[in-house]
Amino acid sequence: MLKRGVLVLCLICFQNIYSQSKERIVIFGQQAMEMVKHFDAKDQVVGVGYLDKKVKKGEYTDWPILTSLWPSIESIIATRPTHLFGMESAFKAKRSGSKEFWQKKGVEVTEVFDFNEARTLEVFYKDLRTFGQVFKKEKEVEAFIKEEQVKLQKLKNEVPLAKKGKARRVLFLANVRSSDIYYCYTQDKCLVGSMLADFNVEFLTSKNMVIPVSIEYMVSLNPDYIILSSFQANSLSDLLHYFKEHKVLRQLDAVQHNRIMTVDYSNAVSGGLEFVSLYQQLLSFIYPKITNETK
């Protein structure tokens, strides 16, 4: 009986030590969630916030979703986190608490997807490797990057050399939170802009980093190509329908000639695991004849 009691006590002590040593991570951003899913690290996650789409009842039932917006400090504290991982923009006093606030509470903070940096593939790789370090998935991450780089290079080899003449004018817009609000990014603040630098195109933009643009502004640009994305607003199919049915926007050259496409928001802006697929989409969009010939 005594031996059994000692054994039970030892098991309880071991369980307590294990539970204290196991990471309890709250993640911020769709990209972070996709990384956790892909690299099978969900067991370390105790909270999720700030997703590309508003969470509807019945969705993500097996995930600890705190909110689709910025989680409150109180909701994060309730998860008893050891670590916070995600978008740099989350860690503000008026959002989910500053980095200094959490560090004073003994909670480690790792910031990624920082829009103070140009959004290039190299920066995305850096963010992904940081994920690997935090979630102890370094080997898996390196293998993934190596494999995807091989695929990407094959696509890059298909891009034709730039020809003399007028470059095709491309406008990238993100529909954000409201059905009629569209943001225009500078080329260095979205991964799709960085990728389009490989193509013979002119990336149309505003003078400021990211601003909402009016229909009048879109008309003044009258782009040859339009790329659309959505953050917590219209579905991608609804976006296409909106442009094709709008009495003014449907007059744009890009819409009239069906040179309009939609892309995933996270992949297109800060970068995500589907970057090879995004590059393939762009290649097929800008050079449809070439991609048809290679099929």
Automatic annotation (TrEMBL):
Coiled coil start-end: none
GO terms (BP aspect): cellular response to iron ion
Domain Fe/B12 periplasmic-binding: 24-290
Alphabetical list of InterPro entries matching this protein: ABC_Transporter_SBP, ABC_transptr_periplasmic_BD
Name of the protein described by the UniProt record: Iron complex transport system substrate-binding protein
Organism: Myroides profundi
